Amino acid sequence: MSTTATATAPSRTVAPARPRRPGAARHRHRRLVTALFLGPAVVYLLLFYGYPVVQNVVMGFQQYTISTFFTGEAPWVGLDNYREVLGSPLFRTALLNTALFTVGSIAGQFVLGLGLALFFRRRFPMSGVLRSLILLPWLIPLIVASAVWKWLLDTDAGALNRFLVGSGLVDTGVPWLTSTSLALVAVIGVNVWIGIPFNTVILHGGLQNIPEELYEAGALDGATRWRAFRHITWPMLRPVVSVVLVLGVVYTLKVLDIILGLTGGGPANATQTLATQSYQLSFTTFDFGQGAAVSNVLIVVSLVFAAVYLRLNRRAVDE
Amino acid sequence: MTARGALWDERPVSRRAVTTAGLLAPLAALLAGCVGGTGAAPPGTLRVLDSYTNAPDNGIIGAALDRAAAKVGVKLERVSVSGSSLIQRVLQQGSSGTLPDILMLDNPNLQQIAETTALRPFDELGIPTDGYTEGVTAAGTYDGRVYGLAPTVNTVALFYDVRALDEAGVAPPTTWEELRRAAAELTGAGRYGIAFCGNATYEGTWQYLPFFWSNGGDERDIAAPQGAAALDLLAGLVGDGHASTSVLNWSQADVKDQFVAGRAAMMVNGPWQIPELSGVDGLEYDVVTLPLRDPGSQDPVAPLGGEVWTVPATGDATKEGLAAAVLTEFLADDSQLSMGEQRFTVPGKPALADAYLELRPEMATFADLIAGARARTAHLGAEWPTTATALYTALQLALSGQADAPAALAEAQEYV
Fold first, then answer.
1. pTM for the whole thing?
2. Is there a contact between B203 and B251 (Cβ–Cβ < 8 Å)?
3. How far is A17 from chain B (nearest CA, A)?
4. Which intervals carry biased composition (Low complexity) (chain A) (predicted)?
5. Mind telling me how many Å the CA of A19 is from chain B's nearest CA?
């Protein structure tokens, strides 16, 4: 997106300002200018995106361990890393958890984010202040957020359980982070809290782009409240919604810090996702080859969604 | 996203502010690079890397290193990074050929690093290696040669709240049966009988090991019944409600916080907590060896903890020689005693035990345990991390009630 913008915009403004030249030279000149504008972006992409991705793909086929850093030797092992990783029982758990975590997080973030965005569409006293407060989870470093949530959700001394026990809703503290059946739910809940600002901001922006006249016209035809939402807001918001959802999926697939901070993948791998498994393989057991194999799987999944995003984005622009 | 006109706050950021930030960012990065620089030090100056970032350890180790350097007549340029990023730093330095002249490693990592040929063996450098406990020597040995030694070491034992046990009329437990009963009687009124660390990291493995080993468990065959019995003990404490289910998520520091806050009457922990525990008003505690299943026929086997010091192969023979001389002084008897006294860690040489206990009589339990403490890498060497992962996996399965102890260990063995 950015490359096409930098490439076409200048050539449009620069070319007419030059005096006329013979066709071939002018053509060459224009190509040079295009290359000069494109160059930095291409170099940047190749250096910081292309190289790491290629290196990661290659690493997935190598026995890349601690020794490799000292000797430079990384024997080629073909598909061994993938066979080992995909065949382990942990991979199935991690894959399922990744799917549940992503679907749960996106559903929660989107529904609550849309609700808040619709709410803030109305102007009312303090709406500006409240809107800014919504952004708070975004401003708190994730490590801090997970440390505070870990404390809030503690079984015995956590604020949430003190409230639940104190109000007589439960008899003893709920083991939010230490029960194998609840930990994933709790982690999803915290991630929803973190993701709400993003969803609210983007959806609110989309809502503001819907012309007020449509609602006025709709009101004349008797479309108010739910029917206005169903027949005006939702269709007009659709392009923004698809972008929010696809970006949300890509962001959520790679979530690592929140899970590490809250549960470390436990209890008994109940919150282990592909991202945490890849991290642990690479940086705890130092088997970088297998870690790369898992993260390549993750990259492929993300790529599918990124392709969907680009398609939707193009269609949205065309509209 | 912003291109869609979806800006949340419409107030624009001034162009000058953006430009200034853009200009300052590379400058800041450059400065940061200089501070953390790894360029070659001038001759007569040795570069040291360790992970003692916290007070008071940072200062105590620094002073001991400086004393050793002064005797040799060299200067030190010391960098301390957090324990979790030490290995990553070592790997970076290894691949860029900028390893320090003196390097500290956590003892379970030594064999992995030695395997890469990044370290110099002590016999070639002339650093004395005799007089250490079997465990310390084993932790520092790879393929029959010593590559690192620990001046002082530690392990875990049972801390208990003296007043809580007195009030409940409970004696410090010495057997598993007594431990179960004591934990049951001490539980109640916002307090659990015992706290320990059972989280999904090597810390969880480390706290499970003394029960596992003392009962005859063998890390080369983790699914054997001896290890399962030890796991069943810990799982039972949680299952009966005498330890919180939060042990699944607690680090050893969290366990100490629970004990200090009075939410656990006993805890499994190490002597590095003593400085903080001693500073707590109104807390009266004592330390005993972890209970055994059958003290009549079993001896306690403690896991050996502590950091080993090594000389990386930098290719600069002069500096390697100077580093060896500094480490020889740093590992000398008086240096071990001084660090052991200040840091509540036990000297690596058993011959120093008597002199040490005169300085630190309260460390008697730990000093006894260290004499027979076992290195985690003694049998498996560089393969240890895989088994350590399997052990904490089993611990998590059993403590969370997902599987009974034998099934948990059998399932975890698939990961080895």
1. 0.84
2. yes
3. 27
4. 1-17
5. 33
